[in-house]
Amino acid sequence: MRPDDLKLLSVPGPLALHGDLLLVTVTSPDLTANAYRGGLHRVPLDGGDPVRWTWGDRDQAPRVSPDGRWVAFLRSSGQGKAAVPQLHVLPADGGEPRRITDLPLGAGTPVWAPDSRRIAFTARIPEAGRYGATLVEGEDAPTPDAEAPRRITRLDYRADDVGFLGDRVPRLHVVDALDPDAEPVELTDGSFDVAEPTWTADGERLVFVADRDFGVVESLHNDLCSVPADGGEPELVLRTAGSATHPFHGPDGTLHFLASEFTGTNGVARNLGLWSYSGGTATRLTDAETVDCERAAGIPVVTDSGILVAVRNRGAVELRRVPLDASDAVLDDLEVVAGQGGEVKAFGAHGDRVVAVVSTSDNPGEVVLVGTGVITDFAAPLREAGVRTSVELNGTAPDGYPVHGFLVLPEGEGPHPVVLAVHGGPFMFHTSGFFDEAQVYASAGYAVVLPNPRGSAGYGQAHGQSIIGGFGTVDVDDVLALLDVALERPELDAGRVGVMGGSYGGFMTSWLASHHGERFRAAWSERAVNAWDSFVGSSDIGWFFTDAYCGTDPADHHAMSPLTHADKITMPFAVVHSEHDWRCPLEQAQRMFVALRRNGVPAEMLIFPGEGHELTRSGKPRHRHQRFTAVLDWWSRHLG
Questions:
Q1: Strands 402-408, 163-164: pairing kind
Q2: For the chain, N or C: smaller number of CB within 10 Å?
Q3: Is there a contact between 320 and 309 (Cβ–Cβ < 8 Å)?
Q4: Alpha carbon distance 482, 630 (integer Å)
Q5: pLDDT per position as a tens digit, 203-219
């Protein structure tokens, strides 16, 4: 896979299954339009060729009504920030979609009521005079540079890739999707955040995730609340033990959800468990240490034989079945339904059928009918361009701790130059699924080492928490131990090794360059945390994240900051950042770049305009292409 092959990257994602109707969202980067394009595809369950089912610029999030007659989905038309998603509905047997919403900032994922008529969704409603909303009816809205100043009184006032929060709080809406004259009705007033609504079985109420105490003070905790579907005061349903997501009801009315457990702001590196709530008692169905549910794969699904949920496991994301009567079930007791050795990206079930989108190291996503096998994939053009499979690496750290990760090898006998790529998070992981960066680097001739050191997710909660208060300690030991395992292979050139990473991976790149510089020829540090002191007050998560991972002592922050040790770096060093990154703000890059240049280091800084922290995953397609080109140019100059 080369940078130009981004346009061949067709990624299947969220899906909807009802009877014989299987709709899958497929998205591709469009380098010419500099946007993401795609629609809903109907995938025959008998293995026939998929058929494009909708033809908008970008259609996604399909949901089939309970009676199977209607499909709701989101459609974004046009380009840039004006292309906000609006809710559409069309008959399940085909036809022209009808737009249901026309909201200034778009609508969220649709959720059908049991009556197959009403739809609930959330939407950010702008404050008057902001984001294109007028101050006075009939007047033009002020341009952004003419808006009034924001009065900020909370620590949680902005979020990366979203922006300022207090002047566009999400509200819960309900609309009669079958009445062409119906307008959405707001059920909450914007005084607190609301997310992820789910209907009760009788269709009379909506349960949703809300800020702790309806947002009175900033908190990492949230609760499950409800409101009558025809309007009324919101009520607390359950005060969670931490932070909840993905609430859903079973056929018997039991409320289930995913949640972590913690106190105060100590919410980092906590496994996400599956819970149920009935009769006033919340029960954790999965073991807190061994089971970490993956929220990105979608909402769990209740079946007659158990609850289907995606679970992280040693770099894989597997679809597992949790018994309905489970209590603190450990990972080994949960049946693997799909995704073993791969990464489940989406799944669904209806009746006795279960389908999943499963990514492997050489395929961004195959559609699998459980019990039958692969029924289709969208990767043939990409495979023809050239992709590589990954292999597992296992080793031992100096203290005897087992280390694990992956290696993607280029073609040929070698010896190949090596790129050590450290993931972000740190409570994330390199997966056994498709990773476009590793494919591009391997196609250019580099062996790519992908470690999951202590601090990573999917290896047990204790593994994830082992670097709290110890950034740059055992995580470094694990990374270097896995690199040593890779370098034992004769096709790798131990004399030509570079290190790179983003976010926490950027931190690790800077740390390795300053403390183990003899092992690397050059470094590429991207969207990094370099100085904890300024990160506290400038990052959208700095007000809690630094203390949770590094403690509260400024001396510890100083010692664990790569910037403190910048004087030890001598190798060529690329400082790469996005202009609008609010997770690791631009000043983190600027401070490191200035320190390196003042020390005489051959450092370069590359800044991508208009992008946030997620550039490498969801940034503008042209910027992703330009970044790939820059990375390959950097390694060509310094590794050959």
A1: unpaired
A2: C
A3: yes
A4: 27
A5: 999 999 999 999 999 99
